[in-house]
Amino acid sequence: MRIGIFGTGAMAEALGTHWARAGHDLMVSGRSAPAALATRLGAATGSWHETALFADVLLLAVPASAIGEVLAEAGSLAGKVLVDCTNDPALTGAPVASRIVTQAQVVKAFNLAHVDIWRMKPPVFDGRPAIGPPVRRPGGGGGGEHPGPRHRRPAGVRG
Q1: In the prediction, which pLDDT does 118 show?
Q2: Mean pLDDT for each consecutive 10-residue tract of the chain (159 residues)?
Q3: Domain range for 98
Q4: Second label for 31, Cα 20 to 30 Å away, from 12, 63, 70, 116?
Q5: Pick from 84, 22, 17, 95: which is nearest to 57 by CA?
Q6: Model confidence, pTM
Q7: Are the C-beta atoms of residues 36 and 45 closer than 8 Å to each other?
């Protein structure tokens, strides 16, 4: 799968590391040193717009205050899944990204566990495997069907 990562911080690196290990194709964009993270992940770099065009799924891992700017520069996200892991204690209700991007399917995920959980190999919480995103694996085929709870695996685990 082609995963675009908007952001270069701790969450982008933690989740991107698992996805790179699982064999996904990655592209990173960010305001600060995307090349450094991309090198560590074995990923390409691109602008916000290039990353949006590249990806089937996008991770939004930028400060909440930058969401509007990033998504405006990314352009159309029609047909994309946008995984929003941002946190802003001042905002409640629907994910911030879903208020801005109406043409993407926005999924709020990964924001309720500290980044150190996502750095674990494999990620665990309270001794149990942490559940990863419902995304198709490379070569998985299908038309984007949701795999359902019994088919979910820890982030980065094939199988």
Answers
A1: 59
A2: 95 90 95 91 96 95 88 92 82 60 75 61 67 46 39 44
A3: 2-136
A4: 116
A5: 84
A6: 0.71
A7: no
Using CA atoms, how far residue 138 sits from 2, 24, 53, 102, 158, in Å, is 8, 7, 18, 27, 10
Dihedral angle, C-alpha 153, 78, 4, 35, nearest 10 °:
-170
- Residue 150 resides in a domain: no
10-21 and 34-41 helices, crossing angle to 10° = 30
What ranges make up the beta strands (E) of the chain? 2-6, 25-29, 44-45, 57-60, 81-84, 105-108, 124-125, 128-129
How far is CA 86 from each of CA 60, 111, 127, rounded to the nearest angstrom?
7, 6, 25
